[in-house]
Amino acid sequence: MKQITCIDDLREIHQRRVPKMFFDYVDRGSYAEETLRANRDDFQDIKFRQRILVDISERDLSTEIIGERAALPLILAPVGSTGMQYGDGEIHACRAAQAAGIPYTLSTMSICSLEDVAANVEQPFWFQLYVMRDRGFVKALIERAIAAKCSALVLTVDLQVIGQRHQDIKNGMSVPPEIFRLKNLIDIATKPRWVKGILAGKSRNFGNIAGHLPGSKDLGSVSAWVASQFDPSLNWKDIDWIRSIWPGKLIIKGILDVEDAALAVKAGAEALVVSNHGGRQLDGAPSSIEVLPDVVDAVGDQIEVMFDGGIRSGQDVMRALAMGARSCMIGRAYIYGLGAFGGPGVTKAIDIIKNELSTTMALCGVNSIEEIDDHVLAL
Ligand SMILES: Cc1cc2nc3c(=O)[nH]c(=O)nc-3n(C[C@H](O)[C@H](O)[C@H](O)COP(=O)(O)O)c2cc1C
Ligand SMILES: CCCCCCCCCCC(=O)C(=O)O
């Protein structure tokens, strides 16, 4: 892996090794992908102030994330269908995160179930919740997260309807995926490593939501399935209901508006994630980094503000921290590593970002995460 020097290298290998329908599901965004592009482009407008002759010999990248010590200000974001990128992908990713000393978030839409992951890792992980129409099922799901000793609940609030991903429709990325389409079969035949990895995995279907998947005869579009299952009536009052079941830390993910940020504070969440779902939902929404400073100004002293969207380097993490985020989630960056090499690829992605962050801190003359604020930026 010596030749791999950046997240883009992992992306390239992921693209070569994983069938196109699964790679595109990760890589692409919704509609015209304006927000997907903005997430990346807007980072590039943020420039650093180089500082020299500062003693930067003792740099410390550790920090606190919702009251727990973490080796880095980094969290692996919830990513649905991770186990389709690499067999038992959720377990590999969670192990890599824990070895690196950072939190891992298991998606409701994971392939490995809560129980599979809990049985195969050593420390608690976070669970991400989608609220479905069947509230009895949602309650049971939260209770499963409690039984699995999850240490935080991440409630995702920006996907009660799904933004259309054109490429997924063209590729037959339906529920379940149309792998038996001739084009997909031919593609899969050229990806023996992926097949081997998938066959080595034990989990094959969406482990958390068994009973809510369509039968093979009702094969349908992702949007039709989401419309039939996800609860579009979800609103702020439901937070109390979730709180009545979940006694632990609650993080609200998918905030892009200062008024919503204030409501998240009022709802008593421990943290919020400024996120546009990686440009996969409301196309035409601003990039996450564009709205971050306003959210931090409005609520940053009342709630822990986390950030995601477009992070592909330690420089991007530094930019988000400088703009007021306390920690960052990464989605595609670690999935590219997983698709390329399994667990070691996730470790590689985390290491790349860690080393880039460390070097960027040094060149900006800072020694600790707590020291990072807008003084590191050339404004
Ligand atoms: C393939 C894929 C699947 C995702 N699935 C989920 C999910 O199940 N739950 C969720 O809250 N967010 C999900 N997200 C959004 C991520 O948690 C995160 O917000 C996003 O990936 C951040 O942008 P980035 O990929 O540019 O880092 C998904 C993202 C990707 C790329
Ligand atoms: C077979 C394709 C799986 C589709 C699952 C659809 C649900 C979407 C939830 C995952 C997610 O958040 C995302 O951005 O994708």
TrEMBL record:
Belongs to the FMN-dependent alpha-hydroxy acid dehydrogenase family. Its EC number is 1.1.2.3. One of its GO terms (molecular function) is L-lactate dehydrogenase (cytochrome) activity. It comes from Rhodopseudomonas rhenobacensis. InterPro entries: Aldolase_TIM, Alpha-hydoxy_acid_DH_FMN, FMN-dep_DH, FMN_HAD, FMN_hydac_DH_AS. One of its GO terms (cellular component) is plasma membrane. Residues 1-379 form the FMN hydroxy acid dehydrogenase domain. FMN binds at residues 78-80, 107, 128, 130, 156, 253, 275, 308-312, 331-332. It is an enzyme of class 1 (oxidoreductase). The active site is at H277 (proton acceptor). This is L-lactate dehydrogenase (Cytochrome). NCBIfam families: PRK11197.1 (NF008398). CDD domains: alpha_hydroxyacid_oxid_FMN. One of its GO terms (biological process) is aerobic respiration. Keywords: Flavoprotein, FMN, Oxidoreductase. Its cofactor is FMN. Glyoxylate binds at Y25, R165, H277, R280.
